[in-house]
Amino acid sequence: KGSFSLIVYDGIPPIAMSNPAGFLKVVVVQGKRLVIRDFRSSDPYVIVKLGNQIAKTKVINSCLNPVWNEEIAFSLTEPVGTLDLEVFDKDRFKADDKMGHAHLNIQPLVSAARLKQALKVSAGEITLRKVIPDNDNCLVRESCINCVNGDVVQNVWLRLCGVESGEIELKLKLVNPDPVPFSS
Question: Which residues form the C2 domain (predicted)?
């Protein structure tokens, strides 16, 4: 299993926030065909942003097809925004080199979660929505948002912009907060 990063939002952990929209778990799975920024390779890492929440993966040394498998948790607030990624090459003695960027609109995932609640789906697997490549995302190809045993999930490949080549695979999972019982 990969590592887990908890994002802190303005100094408050997401668990402590009043958050009707829930949480977004993002697994930065892998990169493919990343660009060379050093002599023969690169030392890539990914910065993931949602609003003012930021997380960074570990650096994978000398690799153009890195596997991170790192899970990151973001708190969601309405209106939900865009998930932004930037890939960099870690350099020891100078500023890190840009290796591309990508974005993905999270609203379709949130809308699919509302559909799941309206349909009262809790078991099995069902496709709730398909998302096609457009200006709201950097999708390489169509992606399905599914409900799998009650979880709303989406697997995506994002094309990196601003560079000759490169793709990043993400697995997204929307987690709604459990209702908190009132104490008397």
Answer: 9-119
d(CA 64, CA 48): 19
pLDDT tens digits for the chain (184 residues)? 444 444 444 444 444 344 446 899 999 999 999 999 988 999 999 999 999 999 999 999 999 999 999 999 999 987 888 999 999 999 988 999 999 999 999 999 999 998 888 888 877 889 999 999 998 899 999 999 999 988 999 999 999 999 999 999 999 999 875 444 334 3
Q: If you classify domain 22-175 with CATH, what class do you get?
A: mainly beta
For residues 114 and 118, what is the distance between their CA atoms, to the nearest angstrom? 6
- So where are the chain's domains? 22-175
Instruction: Give the length of the chain.
Output: 184
